[in-house]
Automatic annotation (TrEMBL), chain A:
Limits of the ABC transporter domain: 5-229
Annotated protein name in UniProt: Cu-processing system ATP-binding protein
Keyword set, alphabetical order: ATP-binding, Nucleotide-binding, Transport
Domain of life from the UniProt record: Bacteria
GO molecular function: ATP binding; ATP hydrolysis activity
Gene3D superfamilies: P-loop containing nucleotide triphosphate hydrolases
One Pfam family per UniProt: ABC_tran
Organism placement in taxonomy: Bacteria, Pseudomonadati, Bacteroidota, Sphingobacteriia, Sphingobacteriales
Automatic annotation (TrEMBL), chain B:
Domain of life: Bacteria
Residue ranges crossing the lipid bilayer per the database entry: 12-34, 46-67, 88-114, 120-141, 153-176, 228-250
Record organism: Arcticibacter pallidicorallinus
Lineage summary: Bacteria, Pseudomonadati, Bacteroidota, Sphingobacteriia, Sphingobacteriales
Protein name per Swiss-Prot or TrEMBL: Cu-processing system permease protein
UniProt keyword list: Membrane, Transmembrane, Transmembrane helix
Amino acid sequence: MDEIIEIRDLKKSFGKLEVLKGIDCKFRRGEVVSVLGPNASGKTTLIKSILGMVLPDAGELLFNGQPVTNTFEYKRHIGYMPQIGRYPENMKMGQIFDMMRDLRQEHAQDEDLLKTFKLESMFHKPMHTLSGGTRQKVSAALAFMFNPEVLILDEPSAGLDPLASEHLKEKIKEQSAKGKLVLFTSHIMSEVDEIAGSILYLFEGKVRFFKELDAIKSEAGEVRLGKALIKTLI
Amino acid sequence: MWKIAKYIIFDIIKSKVLIAYTALLALISVSIFMMDTDVTKGLVSISTVVMIIVPLVSVVFATTYIFNASEFTELLVSQPISRKDILLGKYVGIGASILGAFILGVCVPVSLFAFSVTALVLMLVGCLLSLSFVSLAFLAATMTSDKAKGIGLSLMIWFYCAIIFDGLVLLFLFSFNDYPLEKAMIILTSLNPVDLGRVMILLQLDISALMGYTGALYQKFFGSGYGMLFATVFQMVWITVPLLLALRIFKRKDL
């Protein structure tokens, strides 16, 4: 089966505010999907619903064809990199990695990012002494560490230095070539242009379009994604 | 659940606030015993401190820790771990740390200087109070979504238990002066974990005669083994009920 995540008529309100007004979409293995949309369009809520952090009011979330709302086992197949990663302040970096291995009861299968980001040399440092960028590197390394089938990255390159952000892009491309689904949000159009295969555009809690990147560009007759998006949306 | 608790304890024992709290409790206990040769008086002084400081620090420290770890909780929720295990793991971790501070700061000096039945009751009451206020902190933190509101609510809970409640009881006594209130008083006492603890300790000190007729009734009720059991069970209720409510809310909470 090719589809790994299917979302059916997902609805969510916070009080009177309707954030998601019925989202339908399917994500396939090997895809790199960029979730775009203006502020408050429901991007974060959608991602958090897939991760089970936000519990939907209506609709279904299917993982490998199974409904998974209110369950947690499916999260074994997801690697998540949050926008702001904060960890227990007094623990050392090495302990954080040990802890995640222990909690998931899995061995680390992919420690490439630990090496490329040179994190091992900082294993003895307590988390509260680390800069925001280093914490992002920790989050990224954790997301990829258990070789999950789905990667969900929230603003992955925010706070990363240019070199690290290049490494991360390479890693994303490599994983997608291996048949992993990558879902990510970003505000940097050049980055989306470079790594995304398709774009899920949300607007006011609904899917405005879900198209392949090349299709958007050729329909708009533009080479650059930013301009093509503006033409498509007008 | 136990793994989460283990890592939270690893994190908390290095926290400066907890170390300071332990040191403060130890300093108070030791200095009280040093100043006064009468250990019973010393125990009374310590129990006063226990009734005020222990609930305050337990509730505020736990609420603050829960909110500071909110991003970490989100990360845990994104892992294949059930929400129940996450919340109970956090409870065991935070509860054990606060309890550890109380044991080191109060139980150890008290057992060294003034080991007696009264001292044992004091230790038991302090431990139960620590746990019930951590429980209340979980309830306050899951009910609110914002750190300032959460800490505000937990301070309100402490303020109610430590100060306002006594005023309300007094008001109640004055208003219904003409009726027999003894049984009602026992029920009222159960509505406040701090009062319950205070009664348990005072009755061990044989000063209930100073508390008039109600005191005599208290002595008859709480002074018996049955009454002690009743009070302990009610303290347990103050631990489990807020925690179960917090668990119910947390299972449906959007993070």
